[in-house]
Specification:
alpha+beta, Arc Repressor Mutant, subunit A, Beta-Lactamase, six-stranded antiparallel β-sheet, two-stranded antiparallel ribbon, 10 helices, elongated
């Protein structure tokens, strides 16, 4: 499938939202139709659907403006960007101290999206880390999984999860050991569950009122973790996560 092929309906929605956002005042269907070159009836249908979904507001004159939902979406993007900017110097310090790669990720549905990576010692394995990884085979993903309610967690593991290596955890029952480890140590651990030879450990990042907003992880070949000491690496990771969380919480950035 060609990923460069756009869906026409989505393109129309984007054109409408872009036109509305650029208008200095609420704009009607007729003006929108002329501006974006779409039939008036088509614009009317799309605008009313977007209004019903909360993406557009409509006044008594049937003129449209952006809906309040964009304030929430904008704050979400700003918060994600802010935590990466705020965390970067602490991640760089941890990378220098341990010599390992440090990552910051947020949850996106059933995956972890890596917002920022600070490279450590040269490693082909670490350099192959992908920006999006399934929750169940990622140490950062496990941080989000252990914070799920039990019903949501059971539903997650009832799906057909990919087993990338022989160590990949794909069942609710097997995940309980990983959950116990997290509850005892405050860190999630992943041992060659995404890729052979590569291990990771992750700690949570909290925001205002203790909300889980992100996670940071330390990635390295398993053998190097053993040499440097997993306890030492976990302690430094937790200390860094605590610094970032305390500073981020004071900014009152909610998600």
């Amino acid at each position: 499938m060609d990923e460069n092929i756009n869906v026409s309906a989505v393109e129309r929605v984007a054109k409408i939202l872009d036109a509305v956002s650029q208008s200095q005042k609420p704009v009607g269907v007729t003006a929108l139709s002329k501006q974006i070159g779409l039939p008036k009836a088509t614009v009317f249908r799309f605008c009313n659907t977007l209004y019903n979904l909360g993406y557009l507001d409509k006044n008594v004159n049937d003129e449209f403006s952006l809906g309040l939902i964009f304030i929430t979406l904008g704050e979400r993007v700003k918060a994600d960007t802010n935590i990466a900017e705020l965390a970067k110097p602490y991640m760089e310090e941890l990378s220098m101290e341990t010599g390992e790669s440090i990552n910051l990720g947020i949850r996106q549905d059933n995956s972890v999206f890596t917002l920022l990576n600070v490279e450590g010692e040269s490693s082909v394995l670490v350099s192959r880390l992908v920006p999006v990884c399934p929750l169940h085979c990622s140490s950062m993903g496990k941080v989000f999984l252990v914070n799920m309610k039990d019903k949501e967690l059971r539903e997650f593991f009832s799906s057909n999860l990919i087993k990338r290596t022989v160590n990949t955890i794909t069942t609710y029952e097997d995940f309980q050991k990983a959950k116990e480890f997290y509850e005892e140590n405050g860190v999630a651990s992943e041992n060659e569950e995404y890729e052979y030879g590569l291990s990771c450990m992750a700690a949570p990042l909290y925001g205002y009122k203790g909300s889980l907003v992100a996670a940071i992880s330390l990635s390295a070949p398993g053998s190097r973790m053993e040499i440097k000491g997993r306890e030492y690496l976990m302690d430094r990771l937790k200390a860094t996560a605590d610094k970032i969380s305390r500073l981020y919480a004071r900014l009152y950035i909610t998600k």
